[in-house]
Design goal:
single chain, globular
Amino acid sequence: MKAINTAGLIERPYPVQDTLFFKIQGDPSSIEMTSKAVQKIVKKHASNRFEFASTEEEAEDLWQNRKYALMSTLAANPGSRCWTTDVCVPVSRLPQLVYETKKDLADSGLQSTIVGHVGDGNFHALILFRNDDELKNVSDAVHRLVHRAIALDGTCTGEHGVGVGKKEYLTEELGENTVDLMRVVKRAIDPDNLFNPGKLYPDETKQRLKE
């Protein structure tokens, strides 16, 4: 929220504290009833502020402001670059993951913004760096984040996909037999390895070396 405020992309500032955005859909009466239920629940869990968008325009502005996270993080820190990554865990484990990740990033001296789709246990870490030394620290922090998520029965990625950056974690997450089966299926439908070559599974040579 601090990054969103500092970047100057919104009309009015938000309180700088952990914030949940709820998107409620339905007819007007069901939206009102649901919003009251949500307000009651969050108050029970120590929320000290609840803001309801009563018009379509207010709702659109509120939801759009949520999407400014990445742009705001960069705009608030000129000269920085950003490593964006995501993981996903069971919703019940998300508070632990967020708390431990925020502490890890702070202890590492890294500046970051965390946003997520908490309804499905997915969150994105936007971690800033200015030089190669800081980039190495960010890379190490991302590795720790992924291992932390997997240890909490989660997955190495929720939305971003596996690809080059996350394929090394598949065996840890799914098990060697499952990854081998995935390779067999891919070879059956893609014998010439034309579909995303080298971007889906851990490199078999490196995997054997690890073993």
